[in-house]
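To whoever is on call:

I kicked off a structure prediction for a single chain this morning and the downstream step that reads the tokens threw a length-mismatch warning. I double-checked the sequence; it's 232 residues and nothing unusual in it as far as I can see. Pasting both halves so you can look.
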Amino acid sequence: MASAFVFPGGAAEAGEDARTAAARELFEEAGVLLAKKAENAESGTLVMSDQADMRRRILDGARAKDVLDLAGLQWSTDSLVPWSHWITPSIEPKRFSARFFLVELPAGQEPSFDDTETVDQTWVTPSEAIARAGELQLPPPQIRTCWELAEHPNVRAAMNAGRARGEEPHPIMPRLMPGASPALLLPWDPEYLTAGTGDSTPLTYHPSWARGPSRFVRDGNAWKHIEAPSGT
């Protein structure tokens, strides 16, 4: 049984930038290939059977770039739109700097889990994901991202919002507020600096997206995204 549903992703390999790592992990974990014909490649087009074989070879340990080179392809990362940058709280023993991207599913492709790194999948709208957050065991970054995406009526609007967000970069590093009802505070929470513990990334300006619910609390076995209490 899956412990949690998260977006496809993983660690960057040596020499990879964030966009290339995102494209590679999307292919490995979801089977979605963001690639284009290499400039020096011979004429010809990729067929779906070749795509499946490429994925198998990469999952078996072949270097992704080598597999694409043999197919006359290169990653097409221009379609990836930056959305957010999360940094694991310092209370965690293992920390990550994770960048989230939006991309439109290429025509003719269907996501499929690899049954190794990912063992199940689900296709939901952002609003459905929030409603099923407990069932899906969504971590805070996934819940917050779905909350943000649910504000947009369609893919085009979300992609436009992502491009605008790219002009307002700021990392999101939650801080722990201990107590009888512990909470994870986001940088725009009014108590982020005064009640939070551990490393911080306070806002040096106020991005337009830094609004709405500003903390997470546990509600049974699920995370709940809530507003700060009035008067804080």
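Update from on-call: the warning came from a stale cache, not from the record. Cleared it. Sanity check on the structure: Residues 29 and 117 are 7 Å apart (CA to CA).
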